Amino acid sequence: MNAIAPPRIRRRPATVPSMLDPGLETMPRERLAQLQLERLRRTLRDAWAGVDWHRERLAAAGFEPSALRSLDDLRRLPLMGKSDLRERYPFGLLARPRSELRRLHASSGTTGQATVVAYTASDLRHWAQLMARSMACAGVRRGDVVHNAYGYGLFTGGLGMHDAAQRLGATVVPASGGNTERQVMLLRDFGARVLCATPSYALAIAENAEKMRIPLRRGPLAIGLFGAEPWSEAMRCELEGRLGLQAFDVYGLSEVMGPGVAIECARRAGLHGWEDHFLFETVDPDTGAPVADGAAGELVITTLTRQAMPMIRYRTRDITRLHRRGCDCGRTHLRIARLTGRSDDMLIVRGVNVYPSQIEAALLALPAVTPNYRIVVERRGALDAMTIEIEAADAAIAGDAGAAARLGAELRERVKSATGLSAEIALKRPGELPRSAGKAERVRDLRRIPEGGVR
User: Fold this and answer.
1) Which residues does 74 contact at the CB level (< 8 Å), separation at least 6?
2) How large is the average pLDDT for residues 29-39?
3) Secondary structure percentages of the chain, helix, strand, coil, to 5
4) Where are the beta strands (DSSP E) in 274-398?
5) CB of 116 within 8 A of CB of 106?
6) Rounded CA gap, 380 and 313, in Å?
7) What pLDDT score does 17 carry?
């Protein structure tokens, strides 16, 4: 394809605060709580009337929608999780007739039965509006070129970003995942100001751009909307340095909507969770008991405007902290701290609890390695063994036995200091570990494979 001279786009500062729905985004917390209570009552009535399973579990807890007096009453209701969707596959949790559905999405089902999520026309409108609000919060503007490298299809990322960008008045490049060299050329030729991707795939784009000698970091790129997998502050610095943009953490999950549940504002002091559409709690992941704001716990979400499939106290498995104090940006909606991991991704190695994000933070503190790594856990005899495969930033280091040994020793010490665990370091050459156009595979726990089984 012949190169097209990139359009001259004046780079707007991503730090200018912007609100798509200022009246809602700055609503006083007392009024916000009243709105939540009104919408929660309606959600519970709809779930009770439309879904046998919701009605049975609420009745078993001795609760009826008419008994709801305050938001605190929500804690009397049982928690639900992904297994509840899987066990009622595909339509056992629908609260609306199937004739009212306008779209279906689903998980891949690679680790079990797929989870199906359904949307009415109203659900799709709310989703597009909330994701558009999120984009505006990060500085995306009408007329921006938005390069969307999230996967399209049953995964909610691609279409969720696409519909919202169009609603905001931006120009969408529906690149999806894969064919990375062509994506680099499109980013250059179309002059994208916004990149939407998983952080691991954004890194792959940056690597390919450098190999192709296309200086994306000097172009119009200004904003990165990265999510769908946990990522660290060190990864943020890496992406910003190599792509020349501001990287924003965007949060969502298919079961409660898709991307756009929460996002960082220009202050980047936590992700604003849109409380006019969701109720957020944190609980002890082992007992389900509520934890205080500011304390680490598992995020639990209740939908307030979802028609097709209302989720009531849905366990996300994401570990975070909630902060309800005001933000300097003027928004009153609570902030969700950067996720430290998932309760179901937590590794127990030789009796020690560790999250991959802890290991990532320790590894990426050294500029001599890249953010491409993989944690392999296996059983050797009666003991667990952990090996960290990670690429050196310089091929010469990986090829020099002495330099590789010194770097490996420093990495081992950093991991030991951060987690209390000893790990073997397998230093790889740049580009040696596999890349993914979607979520990166950070952990291979070979202990979970039955003897003679296939992974």
Assistant:
1) 40, 68, 279, 281, 302, 313
2) 98
3) 35, 25, 40
4) 278-283, 297-303, 314-320, 322-323, 335-336, 341-342, 347-349, 352-354, 369-380, 383-392
5) yes
6) 40
7) 54
Per-residue pLDDT averaged across 98-108, rounded? 93
pLDDT, tens only, 127-167: 999 999 999 999 999 999 999 999 999 999 999 999 999 99
Residue 222 near residue 139, CB atoms below 8 Å: yes
CA distance 53 to 453: 35
224, 245 contact by CB (below 8 A): yes
12 vs 16, 51, 165, 215, 356, CA distance in Å? 8, 48, 17, 19, 35
Give tens-digit pLDDT for 173-198: 999 999 999 999 999 999 999 999 99
Give dist(CA 184, CA 186) in Å, integer: 5
Cβ atoms 216, 176 nearer than 8 A: no
Residue found under tokens 């291979």: 444
The first and second tokens of residue 439, run together, are 């979520």
pTM over 0.90: no
Buried/exposed code over 18-50 (b: 16+ C-beta within 10 A; e: otherwise): bbbbeebbebeeeebeeebbebbeebbebbbeb
Strands across the sheet containing 258-264: 171-173, 145-148, 194-197, 223-226, 246-253, 258-264, 271-273, 335-336, 322-323
- 127 φ, ψ to 5°? -60, -50
* 123 pLDDT above the threshold of 50: yes
Per the omega criterion (within 30 degrees of 0), is the bond before 356 cis? no
Distance between first and last Cα of the chain: 40
Helices and strands, counts by H and E, the chain: 12, 21
Average pLDDT of span 348-361: 84
